[in-house]
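Quick start: read one record
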Amino acid sequence: MMTFREQLLQLIAEAQKIHREEKSLTMRSLKVIGELELRRAAPSCGMSVEKFARHIALTKDQYLKRSAASRTLRFIPEAKPLLEAGEISLSHLALISAKITRANRKVVLENIKGKSLREAKLFISRVTPDGELLPQEEICELKLTLTKPQFALFERAREVLAAAGSVPTDAEIFMKAVVDLLTKRDPMRKAERAAARHGHRDDDLRSRNNAIENTVENNSAAETPPKEGPTIAATRQQQNTAGRYIPAAVRHQVWLRDQGQCMHMHPDGSRCQERMMIELDHIDLYCRGGEHSASNLQLKCRLHNHFAAAAALGNEWYRQRLEFVNSVRDS
């Protein structure tokens, strides 16, 4: 009967044998998958990548990771002994596939050895194609939880971006989506593009300080009920003809002038710092005939816009607000 120590040594020897065989099989797998990729096996067989991966007993993620790793080994053969020695992993090879070049390969391989995948990602994000290191940026970590359909959309975004020739990381997909969203929807960017097209940007920015000073007086006027003036009912028919739509050129001019920040002035003379939930506010109230002109418009955060409306309209504003909320709820 074997002693405890003899059993332990036997298990250790068996583990060594299994893992040597596993490494050998992994290297053979990478070689075969690399050849399959070169021959475009999936489309040649009339299969999607996912179906082809299942056909050769892998998941889609496993197949894509090994495909990327095999490309790295084919391009940078000196990575092979590092993989065989366990100094880097398949995940490391897949990660650097889209980033590694002949010029930066030495610095990349040297600095991902023995590093966790997270550490390797952070390092790779700083390496240029020429092998230079960008300054270390402060890192903010974001945890994102998605439903299965949402994750499917995220993966589709990865496939779309991969058409450029490299598989993007999660962070690259996220940042591309953010940049595209801001490019299409950020009112400041729209205003800057419009100003650049029409040559108004310099004039708008030069007039910004004067506009801010004038707004201090405008705010006071807007937040105090006028002593006289047309009633809401008397102007409603006229306003219905013009509509509530504010021309894009006017919106752009106001956003540029106010720089996307609430124009409310606090009693101490300081300006509200809010840049979220920003709305266009009529200085001379729209419901009382105020024009859709840049001189009659300013940016206000929702809180101060409602505050100014309530101060100017009192119970009438609250009644309109309640009607609006009820109409939205019932629709």
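The mean pLDDT is 84.
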